[in-house]
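Intended use. Records such as the AzlC family ABC transporter permease entry shown here are meant for training and evaluating sequence-to-structure methods. They are not intended to support clinical decisions.
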Amino acid sequence: MAITTTKSAYFKGVADALPFVLVIMPFAALFGILANEAGLSVIETLAFSVMVIAGAAQFTALQLMQEHAPTLIVLASALAVNLRMAMYSASLTPYIGAAPLWQRALAAYLTVDQAYICAIAQYEKAPQMSVPQRMAYFFGAATPVAPLWYGFTLIGALLGTKVPESWALDFALPITFLAMIAPMFRTLAHVVAALVAVLVSLLAVSVPYSLGLILAGIAGMVAGAQTELWLERWREAKA
């Protein structure tokens, strides 16, 4: 689909994000079900999804709440899991930083993994897009994601334990992230960061309150950054 107007950019974003619908629905429903089992009311569960709109952070916080972790640990862990959003924002700024404030504020709220993955790929592929077209594309990519996240969270919370275990909705969590991160492995630094994070998370699985995830994330970022430095020095030495 050629992008010639903001309208075509919007619908291109919608079309590019549609494949994620297949995993967003069970992913959101699973959160609603687990939140219901953890004792949250339907209203509390829906409010959780609307206000946070970050699946990984929501699952992390919910698990820690079930383990009766201190509130500070719950908040710190959820924020740590969501630190990638700060990096998303930094990489989007050169493309949409000139947009009106209200659009940037709405985009900040809707900066979820799926919208970001689609947007950054499109912006890099079509640098000639205007800022209004980029914003329209971003909102288009978020359109199939956000309403379904809210809606299926509500469905999961309403159904609660009525969903049979044989449905195995938990498949949606790993598949979602595999589908999103696989295209991002474009350099050796990306691969090293991912491998180190996975290794550390496995080694730190016994750390209480899931704090091993924070350690794994930090280790992965440090390893990736160090690899970039080594590669840059190697290129300079060869030049």
